[in-house]
Structure formats: structure tokens, C-alpha cells
Design a protein that fits this description.
Number of helices: 8
Distance between the termini: 49 Å
CATH architecture of the largest domain: 2-Layer Sandwich
Number of domains: 2
Number of strands: 5
Largest sheet: 5 strands, mixed
Structural class: alpha/beta
Shape: globular
CATH superfamily of the largest domain: Ribonuclease H-like superfamily/Ribonuclease H
CATH topology of the largest domain: Nucleotidyltransferase, domain 5
Helix content: 40-55%
CATH class of the largest domain: Alpha Beta
Order of helices and strands: HHHEEEHEHEHHH
Length: 248
């Protein structure tokens, strides 16, 4: 299962790299990603199976290999949110540290944009990515969740791992998946903000420094960054106002 879930997400990472580095070779991507579940030949075959060539212009190629995926319907399509804890969204992204890719998983509340859970990992297994992030998010919400929170993600293997699904079912969450990146826009934008507005300025040179950098960036994002969509309140301020309004 670990091999399958990593392979699914490696496909997404490959597409993201090629979007930024259109002429990067399969071999160079292999050494940057350093996949645990496959050797160099299998990795290069995966690139070919995805339809990639040695040189390729940026395209709208799907970023997640969903072959064999347990597919859930997109429950957010056309939905209007009216409060927190109605829908959470998650995505996994990569950050390069001294020539090696490390992985960051985020979970945010779709209404308040509050980052509820996150993890930093060297590998793409469920145990290092989505599972600890979800546990942190549940703890952030006090350990007891209202019934029926939509958990939205792409079709990566970490989101349909049996242990992960057992945990969402335990907390009576409704799993939701998109097929295209734009259908998970809030999580995708969060990735870009944390990486490009914070982490790139921290001069990160080790995995430990990346962990500390993500801690710092999430705190700044939640507590100090105003959002236009939140009427220029921070996610923390916005949620506090919502709670006070409900209590009054």
C-alpha cells in the first residue's frame, strides 16, 4: 500500500516539477524526488506513461495518477459555505532543501482559511503526510467534531489509505475528491502562499530548519496575515468573531 500511495503522488510531483522546469530530464527529477518505492528505470517509465517527453511545454496535464483510486464525489462543487467546520481541504506540496525534495501537507478550514493541521516529511507515506495532519486538525478543533464535515482533497493515495479513511469515518466526516487542481483551489493557494511568501525567505538548509520554518509560517499566516476574502481579518480574528457572534 505504501508503494501504491507514493506512486500516485509522485505523478503529481512530476507534473509540478515539469510545470516549473520544462526541460528537466527524467533522471534529474528522479534524484530530486528520491522516491522510496521505485528505482530509476521504473520512475522513468512512469514519466513516459504520463505522456511526458524529454522536453515539454507547460500543459493542463492531470497532476494525480488516479489509476486504482477509491474515488469519492466532489461534494464541494456548487456548495455555498456559511460557517466553519463545514468543509476542510487538504493538499500535499514539495519544498526543495539543498537539492532534495521534502513534503508539506496542509489542512485548512475552507470557510475561515485557518490552517488546522500540517506535517513536514521526508517521504510521501500516509503515516508521514495526511494522517498526522488530520490528527493535528482534529486536536485543534478540540477533539470532538460536528457530524458531516466534508474532507476535500485530490485523488492522491494518501487520501484513500484504509487507515486514513477509518479515521475520517470515526469522526463522521464525508470524503470528497476533485479531479483537477483548480477544484481544490483554496488548498493550492495556501501551498503557494506558505512557500513563496514565507519559506523562500528563510534560507532553509536542513529538514529541521524546514520544520521550524513551516511552524513559523503557519503561525504568521493564521495570526497575522489579513485576507481580503475575510474582510481583511486574519483567520484567527475571523474565527473569534464568528464564535462571539454565535455565543451572543
Amino acid at each position: 500500500m505504501q508503494s501504491k500511495e507514493e506512486s500516485c503522488y509522485i505523478a503529481k510531483i512530476i507534473a509540478e516539477i515539469r510545470a516549473d522546469h520544462q526541460t528537466m530530464s527524467f533522471r534529474a527529477m528522479f534524484y530530486k524526488i528520491d522516491p522510496q518505492s521505485m528505482g530509476r528505470d521504473k520512475f522513468e517509465q512512469l514519466c513516459k506513461d504520463l505522456g511526458l517527453k524529454r522536453e515539454q511545454k507547460r500543459s493542463g496535464h492531470r497532476t494525480t495518477d488516479s489509476s486504482g483510486v477509491v474515488r469519492f464525489d466532489n461534494l464541494l462543487a456548487g456548495m455555498t459555505l456559511t460557517g466553519i467546520n463545514q468543509a476542510w481541504s487538504s493538499d500535499i506540496t514539495y519544498f526543495e532543501v539543498c537539492g532534495t525534495f521534502r513534503y508539506i501537507t496542509f489542512i485548512l478550514d475552507c470557510y475561515s482559511r485557518m490552517v488546522l493541521g500540517y506535517s513536514v516529511s521526508k517521504r510521501l507515506t500516509t503515516e508521514q503526510t495526511t494522517f498526522p495532519s488530520l490528527k493535528m486538525a482534529v486536536k485543534q478543533r478540540g477533539g470532538s467534531l460536528p457530524k458531516g464535515i466534508i474532507f476535500h482533497s485530490d485523488g492522491g493515495g494518501q487520501y484513500y489509505d484504509k487507515n486514513f479513511l477509518a479515521y475520517t469515518q470515526k469522526h463522521q466526516m464525508k470524503n470528497s475528491m476533485c479531479e483537477m487542481a483548480y477544484e481544490n483551489g483554496k488548498a493550492e493557494r495556501l501551498n503557494g502562499i506558505i512557500k513563496n511568501k514565507y519559506l523562500v525567505f528563510y534560507n532553509i538548509r536542513s529538514f529541521e530548519e524546514l520544520c521550524k520554518g513551516v511552524d513559523r509560517a503557519v503561525t504568521l499566516y493564521n495570526d497575522e496575515k489579513p485576507h481580503k476574502a475575510l474582510r481583511y481579518k486574519t483567520p484567527s480574528e475571523y474565527e473569534k468573531q464568528l464564535i462571539m457572534r454565535i455565543k451572543s
